[in-house]
Specification:
Transcription Regulator spoIIAA, binds 5'-deoxyadenosine, 5-stranded mixed β-barrel, 22 strands, 7-stranded mixed sheet, 4 domains, alpha/beta, Rossmann fold, binds iron/sulfur cluster
């Protein structure tokens, strides 16, 4: 998920995860992850829990005795992809009955025991809050039983678990700062699959960031479904600041304060975060970003639609005017800040006129980058229960194509504006196209490619941009 690329559906790209630093375990586990960054981060927690049971992660499923698929339920096509994958693994199991297959994450939570009982596709079903129970679930399977735990928790944040880092570059890492979501956007399955919102103890977040820095990492991304509503007050479900007791208020830490704590771990450690919510993003957070050079000047602020009417139907908690005002604040407080968004086309009752308002909002914001999706109705959501999925498939597709084309133009124009400028780039690895080139990102999250020279991943380089495509900036090291 790199800035500058037009990504149609990141949720259906599965990724086999493996790690170099946990080869101590004698038993092999294959771990495949779908969906959002939070899911990838969860897989690192699963790897840690299973490492304590003697499992190491392999990227070759053929040598694995345990296969976990960490799934996404956000759109129907994400689920279809996973279902097909599970059928493939099931065929392996028929040849080698000793292999245990587990489905984790959001689809496990949504379908619960259906995957075990009706479809007989898997041995273990574990929802996002039950990963501590995996060793126990595994022993149930070893005793010849099918095992399921989809209980959602009010407290679980896996705060004390040190994730096994599965990202390959050793430079960038995710830190989960909260779990669940209380927003109830009418299209979204997440509140049902990931449960209620709760924030993680900031001390454990700082410890994790310090450890990552010591281990050579140079960038952390703080993850939550709605990071702006992060509020630590001692643990438990989300509360508003005004509802905290005087004691809780005293020890409370909000998102802006957390950002400052993490940014203070080391000036050489970059801090990013995702995802921000337009209704909750405060100027306090923007000022904190402006204050610390190592908090990156980049905000992913999903708008979903440019029409106030549609936003109301989506239960987003803001209208077009409010959103544009948030953009104005970003531009004022953090000049040059990279901004990206998510869009859904063809939501219930979306008219041609509503769609045009999305195009006009895109014209006025001119995003650097966007993720764009067709509306996909999800079982049990408010939209499924109370509205009608009444925009025909052809219109959904046409509208999606229109916003993709416009975004591509904007991404290219935005990239062209960087040509001639110089940026501090954190190097992440070797370019996909050539071993003689490295790639990294600037603070604004643009991908920059340049000649290798004496540099290596984890280094910072001052790079002058000399050319671009719609996806990448091409630079020369100064
Ligand atoms: N259909 C299509 N896209 C969706 N998203 C969330 N739910 C749906 C759905 N039912 C998109 C939103 C969100 C992103 C993670 O996925 O744009 O911001
Ligand atoms: Fe998919 Fe949402 Fe679950 Fe992430 S939280 S895996 S995007 S359904």
């Amino acid at each position: 998920m790199k800035n500058g690329e037009i990504v149609l559906d990141e949720a259906i790209q599965g990724q086999a995860l493996s790690s170099d630093n946990n080869s101590t375990g004698s038993k092999k586990m294959y771990l495949e992850s779908y969906g959002c960054q939070m899911n990838f981060s969860d897989s690192e927690i699963v790897a840690s829990i299973m490492k304590d049971q003697g499992y190491s992660v392999t990227d070759n499923y053929k040598e694995a005795e345990l296969i976990f698929v960490n799934t996404c339920a956000i759109r129907e096509n994400a689920e279809t992809k996973v279902r097909n994958r599970l059928k493939e693994y099931n065929a392996i199991k028929r040849k080698n009955p000793g292999v245990v297959i587990g489905v984790l994450g959001c689809m496990a939570e949504r379908l619960k025991s259906k995957l075990l009982e009706e479809e007989k596709l898997v041995d273990i079903v574990a929802g996002p809050d039950s990963y501590r129970d995996l060793p126990n679930l595994l022993s149930q399977v070893e005793d010849g039983r099918k095992a399921v735990n989809v209980i959602l928790s009010k407290e679980e944040t896996y705060a004390d678990i040190s994730p096994v880092r599965l990202s390959k570059n050793g430079v960038t890492a995710f830190i989960s700062i909260m779990r669940g979501c209380d927003n109830m956007c009418s299209f979204c399955v997440v509140p049902f699959t990931r449960g209620r919102e709760r924030s993680r103890d900031p001390d454990t977040i700082i410890d994790e960031a310090q450890q990552l820095y010591k281990d050579g990492f140079r960038e952390v991304t703080l993850l939550g479904q709605n990071v702006d509503s992060y509020l630590w007050y001692g643990g438990g479900l989300k509360k508003e600041f005004k509802n905290l007791s005087p004691d809780e208020q005293l020890q409370s830490v909000n998102f802006a304060q957390l950002l400052e704590k993490v940014a203070s771990v080391n000036k050489e450690l970059r801090v990013r975060f995702s995802t921000s919510h337009p209704k909750d993003m405060t100027d306090e957070v923007l000022h904190m970003m402006a204050k610390h050079e190592n908090i990156c000047d980049y905000i992913h602020l999903p708008v979903q639609s440019g029409s106030s009417e549609v936003l109301q139907n989506m239960n987003r908690g803001y209208d077009r005017e409010w959103y544009l005002n948030r953009i104005k604040s970003i531009r004022e407080i953090i000049p040059g800040c990279g901004i990206s968004s998510d869009f859904i086309t063809g939501f219930c009752d979306e008219s041609e006129q509503n769609h045009k308002e999305t195009l006009s909002l895109m014209e006025s914001v001119k995003y650097d980058f966007a993720y764009m999706f067709k509306y996909s109705e999800r079982p049990n959501t408010q939209a499924e229960r109370k509205m009608t999925d009444n925009v025909d498939e052809k219109s959904k597709k046409e509208r999606l194509n229109e916003i993709i084309q416009l975004q591509q133009k904007h991404s290219f124009e935005a990239n062209q504006k960087h040509v001639g400028n110089s940026y501090k780039v954190l190097i992440e690895g070797t370019s996909r196209k050539s071993d003689a080139e490295l790639f990294g990102r600037n603070s604004q999250n643009n991908v920059v490619v340049f000649a290798k020279g004496e540099l290596k991943p984890g280094d910072y380089a001052e790079v002058k941009i000399v050319d671009c495509t719609s996806a990448t900036l091409i630079g020369e090291v100064l």
